[in-house]
Specification:
- About 40% of the residues lie in helices and about 20% in strands.
- By secondary structure, it is α+β, with helices and mostly antiparallel strands.
- The chain has a single domain, classed as Glutaredoxin (3-Layer(aba) Sandwich), CATH 3.40.30.
- It has a 4-stranded mixed β-sheet, sandwiched between helices.
Length: about 80
Amino acid sequence: MIVYIKSHCPWCHEALAWLEQHGYRCEVREVLQDPEAMARMREISGQSLTPTLEVEGKVLADFDTGQLSEFLEANGIKP
């Protein structure tokens, strides 16, 4: 599970906290400091908005924690 973030993004911090509270482990990539991560995020999502989640070949872009919860549940992704 990879979460693409921008360090100043409050939704990104909220998403990371939610994932941690629910027992998910993730790799965090700060796209403003890592041009390769930004390129990858744009490639998989078609956009530059964060947070963006990449897990098991699936992508959820520009989401809130409610959408995150629904996405993980709908795709059977457990911690």
